[in-house]
Give the backbone structure.
Amino acid sequence: MNQRFKADASSRSAKAPVRFFKFKMVVLLLLCALPAYGVVSIGLRGGSWLAVAIYPLMSLITFALYGYDKKQARSQGQRTPEKVLHAAELLGGWPGALVAQQEFRHKTRKFSYQVVFWLVVLLHELFWMDRVLLGGNFLTRHFY
């Protein structure tokens, strides 16, 4: 009986595959398509290529922050404040956050966190829709 319990405990600690992996990858690619197109088109028109570096760099930093926070949550150590995680997402790290949420199974069930996260993603998408599809005129006219 004791051996059976040990086998059950070890199977629970084994990492289960991400549910709906293919679907989630398609969603990630679709969400990244507009910002990627926007960044490249601005760069090709003589604009700054800084955003080409910012999105991947911030995604890596955000992914690492999620990993650290999950590790701290398991060991009951000092956690990364949610404001810091959201700031990293807002600064372009939302793709890394989306991957980290799935990889570490972290911050996926907390509704209030997910609302802010998806608002950050929506904000990025709206920004690039304005820049790419509307020539940047809508936001400039209404918020500057």
User: Anything to note?
Assistant: The two ends are 70 Å apart (CA to CA). Residues 4-13 have pLDDT under 50 and may be disordered. The chain has one domain: 22-143.
